[in-house]
Predict the structure.
Amino acid sequence: MADDERRVEGREKVSGRTKYAADMRRPDALWAAFAASPHPHARIRSIDVAAARSMPGVRAVLTGADIGLRRLGRQIMDWPVLAVDTVRFIGDRVAAVAAETREAAEAAAGAIGVHYDVLPAVLDAAAALRPGAPVLHPDFAEYEYPVYANRPRPERAHPNIQGALLRAKGTADLAPVFARAHRVFEHRFETPRTHAGYIEPRATLVWIDAAGIVHVHSPNKSPFELRTQMARTLGLGPEQIVVECTAIGGDFGGKGLTLDEYGCYFLARASGRPVRYVQTYAEELRAGPTRHQATLTLRTAVDADGTFLAHHSTVVYDGGAYAGGKPVPHLLPGFGYGTVPYRVPDVRLEMCAVYTNTLPAAHVRGPAETQTFFAWEQHVDAIAAALGIDPLELRLRNVIADGDTALNGDVVRRPMGRDVLTALRAELDALPATRAGRGRGISLICSHTGGGKTSVRMRLEPGGTIAVILGVADQGAGTFTLVQRLAAAALDVPRERIAVRQAGTGELPYDPGAGASRITHIVGRAVQAAAEAFRRRLDERSGDAPVDVTVTYESDPAGSQRVPDYTFAAYAIGVAVDAETGTIAVTDAVLVADVGPIINPLAHRGQIDGGFACGLGVALMEERPLDESGKPVAQSLGDYKIPTIRDVPALRTVYVPAVPGNGPLGAKMVGELSNAGVAPAIANAVYAAAGVRLPTLPLRAEDVWRALQHARGE
């Protein structure tokens, strides 16, 4: 590997010197363990902790009654640190233990006796929305919801709705448009819960110093947000909490929410000693946050040429027992429907997330895009098949153009969808032609570059090293290497002179955390601005005056109207389908993308290849089903399948020349670009190969076999 392809932190990681959260130590630290509910919905009648407190090595045992009703949440605070009167999913925590050893803590947690009155459980979103369904959060109006502190909260059509969003553009009444259309197509799709797939389970270390400052070591990729949330829940000032983000052993969108810090704080306060917790992977899969299960119903009116005239979608997300894991104020997975890459004049989008007695849902890589594109890109293919139009040609007729608006009404600036599709047409010739048992499918996707506000500090160190200090975590995407390259280029110095370091929350102003495909954009621009200020300070320096600058970059200052950049990509994927077993084998794959200038080629390719592997897992194997009691079926990685190297075929990637983006040097996003288009392309390829369409993820062999049997009348 050439020197210029080395990651800043790479040597530390491959040598084993990198410290992850589970590696963090403090003298005299205790181990934490938690007792959790075996019921999906129940009233807590009593908790007996006497046996646990009397066990050797136990130093603290706490229940919800001991700490009070303390709720946590990123936007709405509906999730109790320890349940006080009601548990709402299997795995809901009811007590916390701190002991001298992990074994002692776990034994004590197991000795806690809880008596429950079991309540009716609601295990799916459709049941939760029925008239007369049990209301799972009767105190919803009392939950702290900071974004609505000084304005009315949104109305809810049903008391089990967490949040809802209606987006419309064009004609208010779609009925006449549908009535005069040449054809109207309606399809329904379902996507499952999935895990983010990181190998490092959650862990934390919490300690309180002599001045009362709470120190938190955590793999949470949004440490400033964690500090804010903890301050609200614990009743402390943000200045009383310092969060140090440890190295993150994988994220894939799943490390924006961590829960263990809260329980560990109360145990540390009660015991007077540091407390650490390292979750097992079984615990992670039993109760860790999940991607939203979704049901999507799409209805589109078209003319005789296949031009889209109007569209109406209803999307119901299963939000699980609590909405506290969601970072967006409307309590949905995100704005996935804003990124559909087609021009539709008249649109109505109705979306909601629903409380159920299941795993709480949070964000995973491409939090709404996986569900959205699986549905949309099969919907488009089905329309093309019914009209006898080539699927790629139908997309070209409807792809969004410069000056058009996205489905959510956003103006799209200089979109590259047509260029990507044109390039994909040339690449299709390299895939095997469709024949019995073999087929190829395509998908078109897009995602916009995220924005926000962040700060970078740049300081001249003794010996001539230039320290670049960030508030953002490197969650595996290569952020520190990106920063080193940009700083070296802006200052015209060798990369070796740039030392990149992440600061704790006590050292820099606020940073929103890694996510939303925004890091290259906002951190990169902040680094460039800091380099300019650093150069000026060097020129102005007299004598031994220090050279130390902190610069803030904000993409959307108050009153601004930033037009987001959209990055487009298209897949063509070939499959072979075994008619006797229904087995799907992915044989070929090509991705065409417009990505703008590439600052770090190795990390850039890693993001694309990793996204493809992630999408492959979602398409063919990943799900977190529940049994009839609401208990997660997958209890280990032996049960929860993720792709291995044997499952991932070679991916050929083609870049098309792109217009510059909002990022440094004109860069665009890539982090969430490549995963959401895999599943629909494979589903479309299965239809081409076998003539059956699967509306539900994952695409199981048994479902293909049953569909083939049904098609044959067997």
